[in-house]
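hi!! sorry for the late reply, been swamped w classes. u asked for the two structures so here they r. pasted raw, havent cleaned anything up. first the sequence of the first protein and right below it the tokens
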Amino acid sequence: MRWSEAFIPTLRDDPADAEAVSHKLLVRAGYVRQLMAGAYSLLPLGQRVCQKITRIVREEMDAIGGQEFKLPALHPAELWKRSGRWEAMGEEMFRLVDRKGADVALGMTHEEVFATLAGELRSYRELPQIWYQIQTKFRDEPRPKSGVLRVREFTMKDSYSLDADAGGLDQSFQRHFEAYRKIFRRCGVETLAVEASSGSMGGSESIEFMVESDAGEDLVASCARCGYAANVEKATSRLPEAHDGPGLPAPEKFPTPGVRTIEDLARFEGGAPADRQIKTLVYRVDDTIVLVLLRGDHALSEQKLLDQVEARELRPAGEAEIRAALGAGPGSLGGVGVEGITVIADFALDGRRDMTTGANQDDHHLRGVDVERDVPVKYWLDLREVRDGEGCPACGQPLRVVKAIEVGHIFKLGTRYSEALGAQVQGEDGSSRPIVMGSYGIGIERGMAAVVERCHDENGIVWPVSVAPYEVVVTVVKPTDPATIEAGGQVYDALRAAGIEALLDDRDERPGVKFKDADLIGIPYRVTIGPKGIAEGKAEIVRRATGEVRSVDLQKAADAVVESVLEERSFAPTV
């Protein structure tokens, strides 16, 4: 492709609304353009990158026996109602009513549809199966942000394993795990595989593949010593042993005028430090008011609570609901002596004495609280969010908590969807049994953005060869000079003949503009050809990732670049 004929609308300045590096650079370098909030057009460079990521994904899925489908994006509500997710998905699902009055939705994912198709399988002898597609998904994100990292329309590779039993699912899950490792390595990014919440997908186990980035919306806890890693929605940690005093024979009420927060009580004369307070949160779990207790300096992971109580709906209670249940407002709440209300407590409070908490009377607290003696805890759960520096649950070394981007997620679904949609096969003993399913997703555009987050510098994007839109840009310094444009064209033709994806920058622009544009869009190699070099029989080769500059014989320039590119290309497809 000649740059003079290409649509590459580079910009000098960052978009005003962009915070993530990938958002800034993908817009500035002419890869994407926003149509509306959460909806982006892929321009030719962006399309080429996504096609390369898609090709890598397809090759690795085919290598583990995947069969590619193309399913509708428009789904009848009845399928989602049968699985129980029509209501569970809430406002993130795009819903509409067709001209006949039927409820339909735009697909967020395709478990229900694939489970329906799996109903055509008859015998365990037809299993295992791995089915996949690469298709558009729709989610009505409440706050689209960070360019293509969080959007309302995106491309996903979603695959589904179908097995006769749990042992088969374990094998399919592991095959996907290994395929995902290869996919992300071929795309040029290292990922951390972490334990994760299965959320609305359900199932017994899930693993996220995360790329560390300040633009990430997830927090991941990991241990450099033993390799433990988990999303904070799932992570646990070791806490130092608490040393409590003997406490009091019974809780003692004391006035705390104006005290509304943990910090207020820590500063209040006669109060208590945050780690000696009991934080009381009030939630409505489905139709029931529940008290959730944590140590004062700990934060609640709502996802942990949601996963463990297995509720359809969970939300913080409003002030009116709180007063009706406890007789006081937020800031003066506690679990001491409550009746008729379910109390759930975090494990970090187990066995604690001499604690301070709200008295369920405005502007009053209780000191000397013994949790076992004074608080009617019904359920003990792991509810707190792990923090940086806490002990690894496996080896005790300090955990590191960092922001990360989720680029892939794999789930063991079990029989949830096959039972709901009637996907059963005849077992070896002749009995009918539900198919055991797994679900596995990779976001294509998000993958592109994650590569940019990890592969950039102050001058622009630094693409790995495996996913770069072009592998080489041939920059002709003075295209108005016949000898120079001819020499540039010869190198360009030789590269293409050797199977190298090349871009010929034949624009009548200043050399500085061309060099800046080449760095901005991130082409891995630049071959510079100008009148001075031609006079000396030389060409200049620059490697984008390192800035390394080589002067080579003009006649050998194409061969030198071909050799370098082939060295950097990803390993051969494993099909």
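now the second protein. again sequence first, tokens right under
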Amino acid sequence: MRKNLVFVFFALLCLLAANDILALKPTLPERYKKWLDEEVVYIITPLEKEVFLKLQTDRERDIFTEAFWKNRDSNPASSENEFKTEHYRRINHANHFFGRSAPLPGWKTDRGRIYIILGEPNDIQRFEGKSQVYPCEIWFYQGMTDIGLPPGFNLVFFQEGGVGDYRLYSPTRDGPQALMPSYRGDPIDYMAAYRKLRELEPNVADASMSLIPGDASATLGRPSLSSDLLIQKVEVSPQKQVKDKYAQKFLQYKDIVEVEYTANYIDSQALVKVIKDPSGLYFVHFAIEPERLSVSQFEDKYYTTLKVNGSVINQENKPIYQFERAISLDFDQEKMLTVSRQPLNIHDMFPLIPGTYRFSILVKNEASKEFTSLEQNISIPQDETAARMSSLILGYNVTRTEAKEGRLKPFRLGSFQVYSQPSRVFLKKDSLAVAFQMMNLTPDEKAKGEVKFTFFKEDQEFRSFSRKIGEYPELPNCLEEFSLAEFSPAHCRIKVSLLVDSQEVLSGSDEFDVTYLEQMARPWVSSRTLPNPDDPVYAYLLGSQYFNSGKMEEARQNLEKAYQKKPDSMDIALGLAQVYMVRAEYSRVESLLLPFFSQAQPPKYELFVVLGKAYQSLGQLGKAIEVYDKAISHYGININLLNNLGECYFQLGNANEALRAWEKSLEIDPNQPQVKKNVEALKEKK
């Protein structure tokens, strides 16, 4: 009895919790419910439906429906969305012509559903008015191989029992006997039923065993299973025709990307590699290839600007590094003709401190308001003593070059500039370049080590090749090239292993495709060239990353190194000052930042704030007030400056000025509980 009471109590709690959850879930307004459950019910994918139900506002739903139709538009260049127009025409047709003999709207009937999915049949045969065969229709379709359907096929609808609406016929579920009202034969003897039906209606009989004309399996005495597979394919064909990844990206970026971009996600392919520079720095190299490049035109000029935003977030979900790049593209008509035939690859790189991260890139096209993205987990090694092999870079071309003045370029390993495409598709006439790094090898591993290259097709090994590790003159950088002339078109995998005394020490692998095509458009590349590794920008970037990670000693070391090389950099000085503030070394901040206040142009807003807080921490409140007043004169009032001023005046015992600053702050943002308490306390004392 006690167990039953406990169970009932637990069930009641679960019910109450479920009701609470339902109460929190926003009610879907009627027009969106109709859109979801009626208008697009047969063509929306499960992912699209899941995303739509997660949206919180009507604005988000409106933008999503715009994206929904855009991703089905067969001709985006035209002003009309032909797919959407045709879809609603089919719904209207279904509602007008079907469902008259059933208490259902036409779109809910079997014929209405198929008509909405496939459109007008190429031919319809109707069989009515015969007492020995139920009323039925045979719809014939052809020319739909592009969506995975047979070259020609039938769909049969029959009026079961001779009353009600027409139901979709299944050869295996219903069988020929279901089409004849007076048939009394063996219910599992399909051939006997077929022969009887053939006497009555030969065309109906043929379709009753298989919906696919010429289907050999229909002669085996039972209805063809391929017919039921066909019906399943028809039902899901709308979902198979759309790439619904955009829906997931819409949900992910709707609060980040500007409204005009959210309905315009385009797919892309990406490649991310971690490469160690001889200086000891690790760089993240990445390539992203948007599905298409849209540009604006003015007279005979074509142009656009791509905004590339990157972010690196650690395992505690803390931003470690963020950046933004602008890529301006400008073509004349001749160049545009060339570019339009080739995909665009955006190549870039940046240094990163040790750790495991989530790396993401957002690319926005300002001309078309389209966006694309990449997300990938990356790891920078912590241990610099253990032997390690980098991931493989597979390239379709390699050039050997001397790095001018030591400048850095994406996907360059030493003197090897590797040209790689995210898709990793190769022609038989190509040479496959395999580039990688073998780091921290022991003298014994260098002396005895052997690098083995093994190729697999369908997980079956079909070729291998070995070379002594000592034969690579630029170790740790290694490069090998293979002719693909003898490779047959297939999906392949390459494994690279370091063997010592026949034992595998290190290994890495990657996949690629050899295509049957004879020609393929290789991308044109927009690539940044970076300063040499001695440039203080790298110490500054690493120092900032350590600061964001909460590692103040490493941040101090790197930022002091950068400052020694470039003391006139405002960004470096500010970064180092912020470290000193965290370390409570306030007296060092003044000498860092004061030189920038004597320049003609006012320093960054952040310099005013940091210097003012340093003076406050040192008890030099007059100097702090002077700095905050200058900040307000240059950048205008904001709650941070006003609150800091209020604190300074309060500590100096100037209650009137403190009250004035805090009250002004509350006018800007009334939702400041602590500032409200301060104001109330001062007013009580008056």
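hope this helps!! also noticed smth abt the second:
The domain at 536-685 is CATH 1.25.40.10 (Serine Threonine Protein Phosphatase 5, Tetratricopeptide repeat).
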